[in-house]
Amino acid sequence: MTSAMPPSTKSKVLIVDDDHYTRTLLDRLIGKSADVRLAADGAEARKLFTAEDFNLVLMDQRLPADNGIELLREFRARRPRLVSILMTGYADVREAVAAVREGVFDYLNKPFEDLETLEAVIGKALELDRAYREIDDLRARLGDGTPAVIGRSPAMEQMLGQVRQVAGLDTTVLLEGESGTGKDVVAKLIHAWSPRAAKPFMEVNCGALPESLLESLLFGYEKGAFTGASVASAGYFEKANGGNLFLDEIADMSPKLQSNLLRVLQDHQCMRIGSTQPRQADFRLICATNRALAGEVKAGRFREDLFYRINVVAVRLPPLRERAGDVILLATHFLEHFNAKFGKSCGPLTPAAVRMLEAAQWPGNVRELQHCIERAVALHPGGPIDTMHLCPGDVPPAVGAAQSETTSGPAAYEEARALFERDYLKCILDAAGGNVSEAARLSGIPRQNLYVRMKRWGVVTDQ
Ligand SMILES: Nc1ncnc2c1ncn2[C@@H]1O[C@H](COP(=O)(O)OP(=O)(O)OP(=O)(O)O)[C@@H](O)[C@H]1O
C-alpha cells in the first residue's frame, strides 16, 4: 500500500470540513503519520492557516459560511505553491474539475469509497509539497551561482558526497554515466567547489570536433603554423591557466591526440602547433564518458596508460531510473524554470501526471525529462499539467507491459492492480467510443464513480 506520509518528517495537514464524521475519519487515517489540525468552518481555517505553515490542505467544497474553492483561492493568493485537495460531493464534480484547472492538486469525492486511493492521493500531494520545498532549500543553499544539481535520492547523495570530497583536491576526476545523467553540470559543480573556482573553466567535447580542430583548440598554434593561422592563438591547456579543463566524451579522442594528451599530463607542459617552445600547463583535468572507459581499453580503442592517468578518481553518475524520488523534484524544478523562461504559469502536476513521470524509464535520463517538461510548458496555455500534456512517446505507454517484461520480478499487488485499472479504463472507454455514460453501462460501474477513476488516471480530463 502506498504510504500517505513521508517516513521521516511529520507533515502538517489542515483538514477543513463541517462534517464531524469526515474530520474524524481523516484524522484517524493520517493523524498517526502527520501533524493534523482540524477546522469546522472557514473562520477557524483562516486562523489556523495564518498561524502555521501547512504542507497540505484538505478542503471541503461546501462550508457553512464559505465556499471551499474560494477559500483555497484565498489561501493560494497568500501561498502560491500551496498544495491542496478539494473534497466534494458528486453533484459538484464540474466545479471541482474547474478548481483543479486553477491549481488545486486533486479532488476527492465524498463519501470516500476507497481509503487506499485516498491515502495514495494524499501521499502524492505531500510528495509535490516536498519537491517544492526541497527546491527552495537547494536554491537557497546554491544562491551563489553554483550550478543547481538537483537530487536527494540515496544514489545522488552518495555521488554528490564523492564530488564534495574530490572537488577540493587537485586530482584528475573521471565522470562516468549514461547520456543525459548530468556529467556536464557535475563537472561545473566540481569547478565551483574547487580552490580553482576563481580561475577559468574550459570545456570541450572531444566527440564533436574533427581531430585537427580539436588539436588546435587544445594546443593552440603559432602564426603560420597551417593555412588560415593568421595570428597565434593559445590553446585550452594554456587558457585553463590555474583552473579546470573539462574534456567531455574523452573516449572519442583519436589515438594521436590521446598520446599527445598523455604527454601533457606527464610533463605539465604543452607546445603550440608550429612551435618548439614548451609552455606551462597548469590545469586540473576533469573527463567524462558515457561509455565504460575500461571496456574501450579492452577493445583497443583507448590507450591503457592514458586510462590509468585519467582514472584516478572515478565518479559514477546514476541513471535517472535508479534515483527513486528525484523525478518529481527535477520535474518541478524544470516546470518552474520553463514557466519563468516562457512567461507562463503551468502546473501543478496532477496526481496522474506524477504517477506517469515516476513510472517512466527515462532512457535519455535527466535531459529527456527536461525536454518533456519544456515541451509541456511550451505547448500548454497554462494550468495543471496532466498526462496528456506530457510526451507519451517518452513515457512507455504500457508501463504495465514494460514492467511485466522486466527481469526484476513481478510487480507489487497494488502496482499491478493500479496498472490493470488504468488499462481497463482505457479499454472500456475505447469500447464505448469515448462516451463515459456508455462506458459506465458496459462496465456496470456507476458513471460518477467511473468518471472519477478515469480522471485520476488521465484517461479523461474533463466532463
Ligand atoms: N541533477 C540535475 N539537476 C538539474 N539539472 C540537471 C541535472 N542533471 C542534468 N541536468 C540537466 O539535464 C541536461 C543534461 O545534462 P548534462 O548535459 O550535464 O548530461 P551529460 O551526462 O553531460 O550528457 P551527455 O553524455 O549526453 O553529454 C542539462 O540541461 C542539465 O542542466
TrEMBL record:
GO terms for biological process: phosphorelay signal transduction system; regulation of DNA-templated transcription. InterPro entries: AAA+_ATPase, AAA_lid_NorR, CheY-like_superfamily, Homeodomain-like_sf, HTH_Fis, P-loop_NTPase, Sig_transdc_resp-reg_receiver, Sigma_54_int. The lineage of its organism: Bacteria, Pseudomonadati, Pseudomonadota, Betaproteobacteria, Nitrosomonadales. Gene3D superfamilies: 1.10.8.60, 3.40.50.2300, Homeodomain-like, P-loop containing nucleotide triphosphate hydrolases. Keywords: ATP-binding, Nucleotide-binding, Phosphoprotein, Transcription, Transcription regulation. Transmembrane segments: none annotated. It comes from Sulfurisoma sediminicola. Residues 149-378 form the Sigma-54 factor interaction domain. Residues 12-125 form the Response regulatory domain. This is Two component Fis family sigma54 specific transcriptional regulator. The modification 4-aspartylphosphate is found at residue 60. One of its GO terms (molecular function) is sequence-specific DNA binding.
